[in-house]
Every structure is written in C-alpha cells, then in structure tokens.
Design a protein that fits this description.
Structural class: mainly alpha
Number of helices: 16
Distance between the termini: 88 Å
Low-confidence stretches: none
Largest sheet: 3 strands, antiparallel
Length: about 400
C-alpha cells in the first residue's frame, strides 16, 4: 500500500544545511530497518538524499531555500501494518525516528501523511501517556456526584477524594496528615489535600503504600518524590478556585524538575486545556477534569488501595514507647524549644536556653532532663518527626508550653 509523506519546516537561526545533513546521516544506522538505506549529501547543491532499497519508494530529498525553509513530499511503499510495522522493524517509523532525533535543529518541522500515521507516531514519541477516557464506572461516579450538587470541577474532585478517604468534603479540606504538611506559602493550599489523599490511600508501583515507605524513600530525590510532586503540581493547575496556582487556565510552559512533571505539563497544555477551554457545559468540564486526574494518577504509578487504617505518626510512636506522661513532657520540651529558641542568634539562644534548661530541671528533675537529652539526640535527625514538629510549632496545636521559656 502506497503512502505519501509530506514534510515542511524551517531551520533554526545559525544552523547550516550541511551541518543538519551530517546529523541526519549519522542517525541512520547500518542495522535494523535502515541498514540498506543509502544516504548521500550533495555539498555543491546543498541537498540530502535518502534512497530506499525496495525499488518502488521515491527518494527522500531535503534541501532549504535562502530563508532556511523546506517543503517537499515523497511516496513510499513501506508496510503500514503487520509484523513489518512493529517498532524496530518498520521502515516508516524508522524514517520518522531519524527526523525526530534531529528535530531540535529546526525552528519548526511538520510531518504528515495520507493516513495520519506520521502525526500519531510523533505524538506517541512526545507523550509518554494518554489522556485516557473514563471507564463506565468512573463516568457514572462523576454523574452521581454531579447530581448531588458538586457541579464545579474543583468541588467534584474534592468529593471524589473525600469518598475515597471516607470523610466529608468539609473534613477533607480541614484535615492534614502532619507527616507531609506543607507550611510554606510557596505551595498552594490544594497541595495539602492532594498529598494527604495520596499518602493515605495510594500505593506506588510495586513499592507499597506511600504512608508505609521508609522516610528516605518517600522524600529523597528519586522516582517516588518525583511522581508525588508531579501529581501535586499537575493537579494544582486545574484548581482555579483560589486554592491552586492560578485562577484561570494558564498554558504557559512550566518549569520542570523531572521527566514526570514535564510530561504532565505537556498533557495539560496540549490535550487538556484546549478541550476544557472550549467546553461550557459544567458536567462535561467535570468529566474532563476527572479524565485528567486519573490519566496523570495512572501514568505516575499510583494505585488506589483504600485509606490506610491506624496511621501512626512518629509522635504517636513516641507516646507508646515512653508512655503518655513522659512522652508528652518530651514533646512539650522539644516543640517549645523549636518554637521559641532554635532560631535565635547565639547570644539569645544561650540566654533563653539556660532558662529553658533550668525550668525543665526544676519542674521534672535532673534524671528526667538527662533522659530528655537522650530523646532529643535520638529524634532530632528524624525527618518525619521534624516535619511533625514543624507543623505543631507553626500551627500552635499541641506540645507548646510557654511556661518553659518564661
């Protein structure tokens, strides 16, 4: 079956035709589907020719006008289905791969063909995951919650997370797992809800539940934190109610920290936003928002496994290990020190530290003070514990005893 490939575009400023031709020639390997291709560069005419060995396909010719522009086509007779259309065997895909490898030298390049195969294949090279359709169960869930009054896409997504967390939307919005709490104003409010939801209900690939992973695995740079951040960042772009980054859809290129969030950004800008921006029906917007939610969720390797029961914080474990009475004393001392003293300059830190130490010894005795020092040394490097302390200190919820520094 014949197909015609059309190609056009323009070189980047400063790029020379012969330089580009050498890159293309180097990308054609002497193995696999390209092994019998003949690539020739005519330096005098500044043209590149690729001759295919089937005896029927036209030569692929590339040359540029004085503005660095090109526009041409060639008819090919490569197999477009069956085993010879598989990756690693298809000459059609191999030609597109060669051009894709050098696309960075072009200001823009467009490849099309009679059957739309070229565009789809290049799309698959750019997008590592699909903007997938909802299953019938997922679609019915959206329609049910919509009929119950959750008619904005932001509120509908919260309703879905609340159901999964087995709590009301009001409780979901107020609840934060203190082991992952974001106190920084650098992050939008929705981060807290999204990460609490992930942390307590999802497992990651074959690694297990997020809330049961070792702290270093959850936080230190790697596939887990990259995926978690990509989900939080990507979802925050569609919460336009003041809890995300924006209040209107923003298609600007976002800064990327990993391939994961770069891919999420690509899907957001090029597939989600165009559909969502044109849609005025609120139910259809809710359906699109949930499609985006599950598409990103699946791509990043998360799986919903139900809310974890009896999630224990480090503070809970401390109360169990030391007993409630002594555990509360230790937590009061540690959090109070962090609240009032740790950030002071050295002179003030010494002054208030001496008063703090004297108050502990006077109230609890020398022996318990020494036990507290051992406790402090044991937990001060525990990242999860420090996160919990940070939350308590900033929210002034528990374990702040002003009288210890007076």
């Amino acid at each position: 079956m014949a197909d015609t490939i059309y190609y056009k575009g323009k070189l980047k400023r400063g790029k020379k035709p012969l330089e580009v031709f050498e890159k293309i020639k180097k990308a054609i390997k002497k193995k696999g589907p390209t092994q019998d291709w003949v690539c020739t560069i005519d330096e005098a005419e500044e043209k590149l020719y690729i001759v295919f060995p089937d005896g029927k396909s036209e030569n692929f010719v590339l040359n540029f006008n004085e503005k660095g522009e090109f526009k041409d086509f060639c008819k090919i007779y490569f197999p477009l289905e069956g085993k010879f259309y598989e990756d690693g065997k298809s000459e059609f895909k191999a030609l597109l791969d060669v051009l894709y490898k050098v696309k960075s030298v072009f200001h823009h390049i467009e490849i099309t063909d009679d059957y739309g195969l070229a565009e789809s294949y290049w799309d698959s090279k750019r997008f590592k995951f699909d903007f997938r359709e909802l299953t019938s169960e997922e679609e019915e869930r959206v329609k049910r919650l919509y009929s119950e009054g959750h008619v904005s896409h932001e509120n509908l997504l919260r309703a879905i997370m609340a159901e999964d967390m087995e709590m009301s939307i009001e409780d979901l919005c107020k609840y934060v797992n203190i082991d992952i709490e974001y106190m920084s104003d650098l992050f939008p409010k929705i981060f807290r809800t999204l990460e609490t939801y992930l942390y307590e209900t999802a497992e990651f690939q074959k690694e297990g539940r997020l809330c049961e992973l070792p702290d270093y695995q959850y936080r230190i740079l790697g596939k887990v934190p990259h995926s978690v951040f990509a989900f939080l960042e990507g979802m925050s772009w569609i919460f336009l109610d003041g809890t995300g980054y924006e209040t209107t859809l923003n298609m600007n290129q976002k800064s990327s920290f990993s391939e994961k969030d770069a891919q999420v950004c690509l899907l957001f800008r090029e597939k989600f936003v165009p559909l969502f921006a044109e849609e005025n029906d609120s139910l259809k917007r809710c359906l699109l928002a949930y499609r985006y939610f599950v598409s990103v969720y699946d791509y990043l390797g998360f799986k919903y496994v139900g809310r974890a029961k009896d999630i224990k914080t480090v503070m809970d474990e401390i109360l169990e290990q030391y007993g409630e009475e002594k555990g509360i004393i230790f937590l009061n001392c540690f959090c109070t020190y962090e609240r009032y003293i740790s950030h002071l300059n050295e002179i003030k830190k010494q002054e208030y530290g001496e008063r703090f130490t004297k108050n502990i010894k006077t109230r609890y005795g020398e022996t318990l003070y020494q036990e507290y020092l051992d406790f402090s040394k044991k937990y001060e490097q525990n990242i999860k514990f420090r996160k919990e302390v940070e939350y308590m200190v900033n929210a002034r919820m528990k374990y702040i005893d002003d009288s210890l520094v007076l």
